[in-house]
Write a structure and sequence with these properties.
Blueprint: H1 2-13, E1 19-23, E2 27-33, E3 40-46, H2 52-59, H3 67-70, E4 76-82, E5 87-94, E6 105-115, E7 121-127, E8 140-141, E9 147-151
Parallel strand pairs: 6-8
Antiparallel strand pairs: 1-2, 2-3, 4-5, 5-6, 6-7, 7-9
Pfam families: START (PF01852)
Organism: Sylvia atricapilla
GO biological process, one term: cholesterol import
Length: 156
């Protein structure tokens, strides 16, 4: 979990190579080739007219959290094992897509949540296997490289 958090911090600090692929008035999505796997990294950025605390409440990875209510790509989120007050092993499921042509997915990740002195909040996760969460029938087991979210306070 700590390695995933550090990798995300490195991506955040390195502005090189990101190319914008989509943007609206609220969100910009960029990509760049990954150095870890044969594919691309993606990041979305936006400024929300809300307090950092309220935004964090919507995105933080906790059981019973708000993410399953607003994110159509997250069907369920459960904690498999609590390691500490900031680290846990979690299972996230996604619904089928494209008129059920794409099967539902499940992801098992070790997740860490951090808060920094400047008020930035971070969740970081990466794939892990766990004996209490073997692959489930009717789901395709997905694999996450280091991924997560930053909630960064901005003036005003």
């Amino acid at each position: 979990a700590e390695a995933a958090a550090e990798q995300l911090r490195l991506y955040r600090r390195d502005p090189e190579g990101w190319r914008r692929c989509r943007s609206t008035g609220e969100v910009a999505v960029s990509w760049r080739p990954s150095s870890e796997f044969a594919g691309n990294l993606y990041k979305g950025e936006g400024i929300l007219p809300a307090s950092p605390h309220n935004v964090w409440e919507c995105i933080k990875p906790v059981a019973g959290g708000l993410r399953t209510k607003w994110d159509q790509n997250v069907k369920d989120f459960e904690v498999i094992e609590t390691i500490s007050d900031t680290v846990s092993v979690c299972r996230t499921t996604t619904p089928s897509a494209c008129m059920k042509i794409i099967s539902p997915r499940e992801f098992v990740d070790v997740v860490v949540m951090k808060q920094y002195e400047d008020g930035t909040m971070q969740s970081a996760a990466t794939n892990v296997e766990h004996p209490l969460c073997p692959p489930q029938p009717n789901f395709v087991r997905g694999f996450n490289y280091p991924c997560g979210c930053f909630c960064i306070p901005v003036p005003g």
